[in-house]
Design goal:
The protein is an alpha/beta fold and 227 residues long. It is built from five helices and eleven strands, in the order E-H-E-E-H-E-E-E-H-E-E-E-E-H-E-H. It starts with a strand and ends with a helix.
């Protein structure tokens, strides 16, 4: 079974991680590193994808924004949200296209939440993971020769109203929320990370290899994790 390296970061700005993802994607394409998963939390930022820019989506002035190159519209990042960036080569069975990879990531999040006692699933309105008619996890990827950048978010305990105010991807404000806002209190980032890692082999057919907790800004991965 293919192994993947895990980089468990603290709180790091989105721009710094986005820059590092580009380097890691190139390293993965060159077979210099194995599949690599970044787990991180960002200071508050709203990322604006090409679709949102084409559609003229306006983000309220009270939110800092950053343009990105993955598919989709706008995505909130901030405290109380776990972000996962799989820098993976998607060439295993069942990974034939973007839809199948997205479905795999949805299944992975659903399995992890189930392990924590949260019943979640899909919704025909939009990709991602949903609880009680509300979206709590988003997925947005960019690929280069089937190696991915960007990834997924899980809102477990975000500040009240910050996610809910945004009309993300054409949905009504309030559709996207957090698990704590839905009464699933007590979940932590560490618990979510452990649940994801413990279900990866079953869902993604990849096992956890080396786990690093590098500190600082780029080139922290080279200096600390040696990947």
């Amino acid at each position: 079974m293919r192994e993947f390296t895990v980089l468990r970061l603290g709180i790091v700005g989105h721009e710094a991680v986005a820059t590092e993802m580009v380097r890691l994607q190139q390293a993965r394409l060159a077979e210099e590193i194995p599949d690599t998963l970044i787990l991180v939390e960002h200071p508050e930022i709203v990322t604006v994808g090409p679709k949102a820019r084409r559609d003229g989506v306006v983000v309220p002035e009270s939110y800092a924004t950053s343009p990105i190159d993955r598919g989709g519209g706008i995505t909130w990042h901030g405290p109380g949200q776990l972000v996962g960036y799989p820098i993976f080569r998607w060439d295993l069975d069942g990974e034939a296209n973007v839809a199948s990879v997205t479905s795999l990531l949805e299944s992975w999040i659903i399995a992890a939440l189930s392990l924590l006692g949260v019943d979640s699933g899909r919704d025909p309105r939009m990709q991602g993971v949903w609880v009680a008619e509300h979206k709590v996890a988003s997925i947005g990827l960019a690929f280069l020769k089937w190696v991915s950048r960007h990834g997924f978010t899980i809102n477990y305990d975000t500040p009240a109203g910050r996610v809910e105010t945004l009309a993300a991807c054409g949905m009504q404000p309030g559709t996207t929320t957090s698990l704590s806002a839905l009464g699933r209190d007590g979940l932590t980032r560490v618990a979510l990370e452990e649940a994801l890692l413990s279900t990866a082999a079953e869902v993604l057919h990849r096992s956890v290899g080396d786990v690093h907790e590098p500190v600082g800004l780029p080139p922290w991965l080279l200096a600390r994790a040696k990947v």
